Structure formats: C-alpha cells, structure tokens
Amino acid sequence: MKQKEIKRKEILDAGGIARSLSRLALEIFERQQGQKDFAFIGIQRRGVPLAKRIAQKLKEMEKLNIEVGALDINLYRDDFSTVGTAPVLRGTNVPFTVEEKTIILVDDVLFTGRTIRAALEAIVDIGRPKKVELAVFVDRGHRELPIQADYVGLSLNTRREDHVELYLTETDGKDSLILESGK
Asked: pLDDT tens, 103-113?
C-alpha cells in the first residue's frame, strides 16, 4: 500500500501572526469599549502567550492594562483515554477574581470544541464570571460541540484529518502557522 505524502504549508509567518493579533486586539477593544471589568484567561500552553500578547497590544494601542491569567484544563479533559494516562500539568494561575467580570478565554486553535468545554468547567470552579467570551487565533471548523468563537484571528477551511499547528516564540522559539495535509 502506498503511503500518502504529508504536505506542510506555512500559512502565516511571524509578520502575519503579529498582524492577526493586532486585528484581534482591535476587535476586542471595539467590542469591549466602555467595559471596565474584563480580563483574559489563556488556556495552557499557547493560549497564555497569545493572551499576554493581545493584552500588550491593547496597552500599546489604547493604554489599557488588562489582567491576564493562565488556565490548565488537563484535569477537565474528557479524552484521557485517547491522549494518555498521565496528563502533563502546567498550572492554573488566575491572580484576580473572575466574579462579575467578563472573561475573554484565549486559545490557539479551535477544532472540536472539547478543549473549550473543559476550560468553561475549570473557570466555573474558580468563580462565576459575569460573561465568558472566546478568542481564538485559528478557527478550523469541524466542531463536535455547539461552541463558537466571539473573536477569530484566522478562519481556515481544513479537512478533518488535516493538522493545524501554531508555533509561538514563547513556547517553540519561532512564530509560524503551519497546515499539514495528506495524512
């Protein structure tokens, strides 16, 4: 049997990622304008540096100081049997109260929606926010749960078997968005 060739294509380089983050920050600012109590919570791993970068862009563009927290959802996942037996815990650090705040949950790639479901459970264990909104860098479709993002950096049409990987300097040493197809 002939093996399929895996094709890797860079969708965005560092400059494209920076531009997409600026657009995301601007969209969040426009929608949150006048709101005093909102904060970012990034989902470990790549959602955390994305949340910090968006908060930094809001500080540079609009002189806003937005609080940023980190959320580890590994103990809330419903797929332990398919990802292994011992989850790697990276830690939750939300140094502010979520009570009566709009929380903007930040993640890298939105696919099935299962990570976001787990994150919502984890947030509720911390407290009861006024509202939760979702910001993702990439929405690639193929949802298994009725979850959609409020803010999207880039929408990609993918096949279910494709793989989308966002690399960030903070976690991977470079900024790049890669689409792998042909598996």
From this structure: 999 999 999 99
